[in-house]
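Usage example:
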Amino acid sequence: DLVLTQSPDSLAVSLGERATINCKSSLSLFYNSNNKSFLAWYQQKPRQPLKLLIYWASIRESGVPDRFSGSGSGTDFTLTISSLQAEDVAVYFCQQYYSAPSITFGQGTRLEIK
Amino acid sequence: QVQLVQSGAEVKKPGASVRVSCKTSGYTFNNYGIIWVRQAPGQGLEWLGWISAYNGNRDYAQSLQGRLTMTTDTSTSTAYMDLRSLRSDDTAIYYCARGIKRLGDLSSALNDFWGQGTLVTVSS
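Running the assembly step on the lines above writes:
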């Protein structure tokens, strides 16, 4: 089974500071046929559905603030929030769609204000 | 704009069945599939299964085989998830999302639009 492991489980960052969340896959998510990694990042706020932030590991979804960025390839990926805003308090999940339709998520990282 | 609107919250007794619907709009329904995911209270996200609105192919999580059925109604662009023999550990928020059209179709693999979620509570 393809397992995603996020780190850390929780994170407290001061407003305006950088937040970094990592996601490690047990198998490479890179597909040679299209030169892309099948990795997405989602944000979840209380009582709200998942919001897509990043796909193909580094492409920002339309409407997502540019302080959010994704990087990485293969098995190691990072979500970075360059300057934390109060509205960014949420749980963040990475997700692999390499094995779609069967997809898996990381366990989630809870981001709070320090 | 693309929308997936799910049916309302359900409260069921153990052993009962539940049906959750996911009505879609804003895109060509049979150009994609639908996946279902659930999130138990305070827990992570668990993939339940997938159905192709293109050819009806299905794939279910092994842990739910025999209790889970997914269907689509192309006339109303709606997907359904039926879960039988409910147990207390089926209590969760159930989400639908747009997904892969057919196996190997990389262009539609991303789950870019999600429903708002349906709380299913199983309690005696």
